[in-house]
């Protein structure tokens, strides 16, 4: 089993977070923009490339907020993800040219149907993956201390 790195952006504007909206057989779900690291690519290059692909915007990257592992065989989607082992790195990011809020993804993910600003205080009502991330983002907004390593959570 290969371990795949995925680099993700947490983009907050006021009390809202920017998420990609996706759809599967269960309905709509949300993800932080970002994706898989390519061979010889740095985390920052990966994140800039993935944000251009998924939200059509460059980002400025700040601090690492969270690290999450996903070992597929341990979670509800194990039938599909049994051999998946992914480590996700979530960075605090800002949009470049923040005054312009238009989005034009160049290469959205297969299930991606849109991009939305979601109120952080309403995150618990959204199907955001990983689910555990919702409570940590809310704590961050409220100035509470959070762990960096979240473990094998979904």
TrEMBL record:
Record's keyword annotation contains Nuclease:
no
Q: Which domain of life is it from?
A: Bacteria
| ATP-binding recorded as keyword | no
* Location of the Nudix hydrolase domain: 2-142
What cofactor does this protein call for? Mg(2+)
* InterPro entries given in the database record: NUDIX_hydrolase-like_dom_sf, NUDIX_hydrolase_dom
For this UniProt record, the keywords arranged alphabetically read as follows:
Hydrolase
Q: What is this protein called?
A: ADP-ribose pyrophosphatase YjhB (NUDIX family)
Query: Origin organism of this chain?
Result: Lederbergia wuyishanensis
Specify the taxonomic lineage. Answer: Bacteria, Bacillati, Bacillota, Bacilli, Bacillales
């Amino acid at each position: 089993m290969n371990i795949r790195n995925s680099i993700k952006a947490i983009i907050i504007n006021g009390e809202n977070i920017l998420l990609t909206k996706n759809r599967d057989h269960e309905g709509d779900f949300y993800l932080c923009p970002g994706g898989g690291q390519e061979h010889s690519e740095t985390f920052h290059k990966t994140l800039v490339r993935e944000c251009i692909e998924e939200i059509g915007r460059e980002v400025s990257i700040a601090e690492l907020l969270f690290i999450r592992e996903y070992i597929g065989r341990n979670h509800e989607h194990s039938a599909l993800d049994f051999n998946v082992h992914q480590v996700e790195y979530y960075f605090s990011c800002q949009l470049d040219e923040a005054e312009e809020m238009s989005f034009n993804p160049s290469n959205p993910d297969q299930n991606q149907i849109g991009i939305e600003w979601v109120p952080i205080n309403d995150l618990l009502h959204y199907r955001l993956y990983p689910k555990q991330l919702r409570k940590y983002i809310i704590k961050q907004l409220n100035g509470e201390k959070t762990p960096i390593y979240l473990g094998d959570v979904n």
